[in-house]
Amino acid sequence: MQKARTMVLIAGAISALATGLSGCQPFSMGIFTPIPVPPWVTERMEEKYCYQNDHRTPIMPPIKEGFPPPLCEDAPSEAEVIRAMPHVSRGVPYYCEEFRDKIEITSERMIDKIDPVRFYPVVGPAQLHHCHWKCTIYYTETIESGHPFPFKCVKPRVEGVIYIDKDHLHLYAGDDKDKQSVFTRELSGL
Question: Rounded CA gap, 169 and 129, in Å?
Answer without folding.
Answer: 6
